[in-house]
Batch of 4 targets.
Target 1
Amino acid sequence: MATRTRSKKTCTVIGGCGFLGRHIAEQLLQRGYAVNVFDIRTTFTDDRIQFFEGNLCQTECLLPALEGVFAVFHCASPPYSADDRELFYRVNVDGTKILIAACKQAGVKRLVLTSSASVVYEGKDIKNGTEELPYAAKPIDYYTETKILQEKTVLGADSADLHTVAIRPHGIFGPRDPHMLPTTIATARAGKMKFMIGNGKNLVDFTYVENVVHGHIIAAEKLEAGSPVCGKAYNITNDDPIYFWSFLSRLLTGLQYDTPKYSIPYTVIFFIALLVQFFCFLLRPLVTIRPTFTPMRVALAGTFHYYSCDRAKRDMGYAPVVPLDKGIELTIKAFPHLKNSRT
Ligand SMILES: NC(=O)C1=CN([C@@H]2O[C@H](COP(=O)(O)OP(=O)(O)OC[C@H]3O[C@@H](n4cnc5c(N)ncnc54)[C@H](OP(=O)(O)O)[C@@H]3O)[C@@H](O)[C@H]2O)C=CC1
Ligand SMILES: CC(C)=CCC[C@@H](C)[C@H]1CC[C@H]2C3=C(CC[C@]12C)[C@@]1(C)CCC(=O)C[C@@H]1CC3
């Protein structure tokens, strides 16, 4: 059971058992905060943390976790790969509205949303994209569609009672990552990582998790009446874009897998991914097939998508705390169990 000192400020991390949420919780402890974690499943233990289990769509579950809290970090979401429109709307849109109302009821003054830089991404190149870019008019999936609605709701709720800010990370990686690195390795193990999509020269942001955490915490600390951060969105990246296929190749070589040597034109593979998606849709009543190369993944692998952090640097003094090379090294070290045993 967590012991609390009266002088410590308490923060609540919604989705705090997830990849990013747990890193936020651990860094908050390091920086001297008391921490509540709220999640639908409790997947780890830590004597310093007070855990609350529940669905964020239920006010009565949320309220005990929000009492007397200095700041709330909202990083719960269904995984981006869930192909479930109803679930995304229920959690990301309705659940976020319920959370905002609960924060107000509990008297919480600061709410930090984990949004995504992809809210402006439509599958076409973005080079040094700023927060001034319009939201995607044609979001590439339900995940992106509901992240846009979620961000608009949170920023629209900014008021004297509840100050809000949205952090837009991109391509988060690091220890305990359940998405990027495991998907890359699973694709390599399945023998599907033989070809690069496009010419391999598309620059992309990959962001080490501790930098994303740092962006969230400094935003929360700045979030008070009169601050420029109130009601605004902020890109948070490593500020060091890298060729998509160089990044993936570094993870693959680090874990002793072969890297792709040949390339297929982007338009060809995108068209094939569209066709595969269409056939999966037709076959859905009979069988559920989850293709590795969805149009979204192909677009993410073959286009430029990197973003400017200038606004975060200016308004909250943001600078990455872990350089990209170090982040890659720490990540590879954290996944010894995914090393290729066949070499
Ligand atoms: N990973 C990335 O590259 C990026 C992520 N983001 C955003 O960052 C945030 C965190 O992502 P990440 O840590 O990778 O994701 P995770 O899936 O690791 O974490 C999300 C957590 O939220 C929990 N959760 C889901 N639904 C509910 C609910 N109804 N009530 C309470 N808890 C719930 C999940 O539980 P369970 O696992 O049981 O579903 C999980 O523990 C998300 O908002 C995501 O959109 C933004 C940009 C990039
Ligand atoms: C071609 C192939 C199989 C690559 C494997 C890596 C991918 C799993 C990642 C490459 C870019 C990543 C990314 C996200 C998820 C993982 C990747 C597709 C997000 C969609 C996660 C959620 C977001 O908010 C945006 C991210 C963009 C980049």
Target 2
Amino acid sequence: MSTLPTADAARLVSRTLALPEGVVDDLLAVISAEAPAREVCSWVRRGDGLVGWGTAAEFTGHGPSRFEDAAAWWRAMCAGAVIRNEVGGPGTGPVTFGSMTYAARSPQASHLRVPAVVVGRRAGRAWVTTTTVGEALPPTEVVTEAASPGAPGEIAFADGPRTAAEWEIAVAEAVTRINHGDLDKVVLARALVARAESDLEPRWLLRRLAERYDNTWVFAVAGLVGATPEMLVRLDRGLASSRVLAGTIRRTGDDVHDLALAASLARSSKDLEEHEYAVRSVADALGRHCGSMNVPESPFVLHLPNVMHLATDVAGAVDDGSTSLDLAASLHPSAAVCGTPTALADDLIAELEGLDRGRYAGPVGWMDASGDGEWGIALRCGQLADDDPRAITLFAGCGIVAGSAPDDEVAESDAKFLPMRDALTATA
Ligand SMILES: C=C(O[C@@H]1C=C(C(=O)O)C=C[C@H]1O)C(=O)O
């Protein structure tokens, strides 16, 4: 069902040039104002990362083989490529952004997208890559600040397939199944639909998200826009690392009280148990590709403006030639977004959630021709509607374990909607 290129079509031609200091102070500001919403690509954290626009090549895939098909497509595109790269290092040369569906059963497509123009920044160095499919090197792009995006105006929010009250009942049912011994943990998600007065611009949302959530990766791929705090896997010249999050507490706005809450989160047996399942699932999957691993014994508390999470950074030295997308495929779905055991949790999600997650909770990120890249989990995000430029569906989910209280989980999901809700309703 996937669109694989023919050998002829696979000839990527790409040129990467260094940009002088001062040209790119703000990656998000250089994204072309003319780019249609679905063409805007972003992966930016604290000013570093990659943005892109335009289309050199595109892959869409479905079903259980979507990761394999995407990996084969990128290998074919890179095998025939002509690459002029005067910068070097991860994220230079031709780059594909990607966003994969959470579930193999989703009717929605998984995407790889090679922008015509990519601008990157890392440790004070900036570059521009132009890519095309054909014979001749593409012309270079003049990188400048684009016109500011417009605010979306008044926003109306409506329930997704389930109201909060209906979702609470689904959570209660999940707790019953867990107490009955059917499984240990399941992650259930809910959706909200937002409709704006004016067309929604990813550039507006990205900017607002980056301003407030500097501990996250601010992403956009094929209309999926968000700010994720969770790094599924980064591969940088053989070193793989992953930031596992699970176990959450809402912030109150009172810093002293929040510190006390952070201390209680680090001691909460319910949250530590939920966290341990997620770390195990990532460490086991990554361990299959790595000669040596570093798995810290206890988590730290990651502070975000809306919530705090238990977090563990896992690392390993990859010894089997896997690319970052191969690693993302074997890590997905982790217990942070699915549950434990995986197959039972996945079945319960299908039974109770009443939602097509689409690409929410799937891997989102980028990869270069060497296979290095970064894939986060698409959380704290929204999917722009295909048929309505003013509509976006927002998603939030919570890990449910034996000690979970359904009303607390509703409040936690509300807190997880906040980054996108605030970005939509910000006035400037
Ligand atoms: C599923 C989401 O978040 C995940 C669930 C968490 C939890 O239940 O504690 C914490 C971080 C994420 O791994 C989401 O934000 O939608």
Target 3
Amino acid sequence: MKTSFVLPTGIEPLTRHPNATRPGQKIDLHHSMCYGCGADAEVGLRIAVTAGEGLTATATMQVENWMQGGPGVIHGGVLSGAFDEVMGTVPLLLRRPVVTGHLAIDYAKPIPLGSTVHFGCEIIGGIGRKIYTRSYAHLGDPDAPVAGAHALFIVIDLEQHFADYRDKAVHPS
Ligand SMILES: CCCCCCCCCC(=O)SCCNC(=O)CCNC(=O)[C@H](O)C(C)(C)COP(=O)(O)OP(=O)(O)OC[C@H]1O[C@@H](n2cnc3c(N)ncnc32)[C@H](O)[C@@H]1OP(=O)(O)O
């Protein structure tokens, strides 16, 4: 798939944490009100990410009517959010909390409402606090991708990063 995302030189391989989610198991939620994965979010993608071997994962998302952009197809921003969620979850296999620094999406085919989108994702490697990932999406045939993505995630200190915003957090009612 065509992309203009350029990986830097010097990326080093990373190692799965010994206590990471086992292959075939669902990777823990960010939190239950997360737009990407939370079961309690008022509006959300409700994506479940399953750990694969090594630093890989898979996920699925149902394309619901509220996700419409062009007539009959998913909005590009929704798909972008889905890639962000999938790729942002995989670093949990390293047991390192991250936020997105840079996200790049390649849209190859329109995705119809009512589809099930299947995602594959892997961590490419890292440089210091920078973790590089790639992902692709298909509608049932992995040899026919409909979109792809790359992202740079930055490892954060979880408490410090959100310290100024926690009083705004919403909780399940
Ligand atoms: C785990 C908890 C639950 C999280 C839910 C995850 C949901 C899915 C993921 C998301 O959607 S997260 C939400 C969207 N992202 C953000 O809100 C992040 C907002 N940005 C920031 O908070 C800061 O810019 C950031 C923490 C990413 C970086 O700030 P820092 O001050 O910690 O680090 P710095 O700016 O020094 O950058 C660290 C390295 O990354 C590089 N970098 C940062 N942003 C970059 C960028 N956009 N492109 C390329 N490189 C970038 C930067 O050049 C530097 O490289 P070097 O180490 O080589 O000097």
Target 4
Amino acid sequence: MATRLASVPVAETYKVHARLDGVTRIYPPRAGHGEVHALGPLSLDLRAGEFLSVVGPSGCGKSTLLDVLAGLAVPSAGTVEFEGKRVLGEVPDGVGVVFQEDASFPWLSVEDNVAFGLRRAGMDAAETRRRVDFAVGFMGLKDFRRAYPSQLSGGMRQRVCIARTLVLQPRLILLDEPFGALDQQTRLLMGDELLRLWRETGATVLLITHALDEANLLSDRIGVMAARPGRFIDIVGTGWPRDRDSRLAERPDFGAVTARLWSYLRGESLKALQGSSPPLGGEAR
Ligand SMILES: Nc1ncnc2c1ncn2[C@@H]1O[C@H](COP(=O)(O)OP(=O)(O)OP(=O)(O)O)[C@@H](O)[C@H]1O
């Protein structure tokens, strides 16, 4: 039986884990540019314990959606809730965020990087050690715990960043293109790691990605966004088993889901390139 980081899997406690309701985000004008209507109106119910990916053309508002859900950006209209409480301008307890860029601190060893957030929060040394040991072992970094980021590959540095989020015992994990800078093979292996993390912690996961195959492989549902301002065109359910891994791509029915995603995105990507988009409803529940 695998060790769970969260003591009770979220799916046993909540049905809807996080909710965006009629959310828009408009960036104010800045030097030489008018305001930017980046997002919405958009609604989404994130189901407890699911793995949901979001895909969409470049600049359609995916990162803005994640920032608003994480409490890192305040919506211009609409509401955001996590575990039934309003999210108001700060990352709620229980939410962990992983970004694309290598956010490890180069002057700290792997274990000090992983312990950083816990120490800053004033956690006692014994509990910090227990959690760091678990996260370092879970992410396959045991032999590198005293190494510095400059001594690690890009994939391993990204493991450090995930371990740093994992020690916070997040019940909702938000990832913004976490594997964007990695080569294809490392990306596939990291995808398998992420699936294992999702299964064994029982957390809810929302992943932003450009890679349609990655979204297909990893997800229970895939939200497809229209060109800016980002709204959902559709939420595609994959129906894949929970104990999936990258071998899923060998199934004959795998390609049909990716093809469906691409059929949506082809037109939207062209619109994004041409700088226009049609009015859409934006409801996805
Ligand atoms: N701070 C800001 N001020 C003004 N406009 C912004 C700001 N941040 C983002 N934008 C604009 O909002 C739109 C959505 O940006 P966002 O980064 O959310 O899109 P994205 O889908 O994540 O893009 P990509 O796929 O290229 O990473 C873009 O047109 C972007 O230029």
